[in-house]
Amino acid sequence: MVSTNDQVRFLRDRSGNIASADPITSLLYELMRDHLPIGVVEEIVNGIQIHRPTEDSPDYFTNGWLARYAHDLSQRLQGKMPPPGESPPREVLR
Predict the structure, then answer these.
(1) If you ran DSSP here, which 8-state letter would residue 56 be given?
(2) Which of 35, 59, 63, 75 could lock 80 by a disulfide, CB 3.0 to 4.6 Å apart?
(3) Is 44 helix (H, G, I), strand (E, B) or coil?
(4) Rounded distance, CA 78 to CA 76, Å?
């Protein structure tokens, strides 16, 4: 009888045995594997590619709190914020 570990190894070998150090690739992989249909992700990516936000033509968001959280996640994935457990720089709101 083939063990579960052998089956997983076999499927990984068949599909390409891919590894990545890119956090955005890891995020998208987990979202598509476990949470969102691939077609939904593809539509979002296509929309962003068609209208790529720039300094002169940014995206405008209707929910500022959600936009701030999305930006925070982006900063964390890009390594611009400390990992969980470390204190982020203090922000003074005025």
Answers:
(1) S
(2) 75
(3) helix
(4) 5
DSSP state of 54: -
Q: Write out the residue range of the structural domain in which residue 23 sits.
A: 18-77
> Cα–Cα distance between 69 and 30 in angstroms, integer?
19
Q: Residue-wise over 42-79: b if at least 16 C-beta within 10 A, else e? A: eeeeeeeeeeeeeeeeeeeeeeeeeeeeeeeeeeeeee
**Residue 84 domain-assigned (yes or no):** no
pLDDT tens digits along 15-59 = 888 899 999 999 999 999 999 999 999 999 999 999 999 999 999
With a cut of 70, say whether residue 93 has pLDDT above it: no
Of 69, 40, 70, 30, the C-alpha closest to 53 is 70
Answer yes or no: is 51 within a domain: yes
Lowest mean pLDDT among 5-14, 61-70, 83-92: 83-92
Domain count, the chain: 1
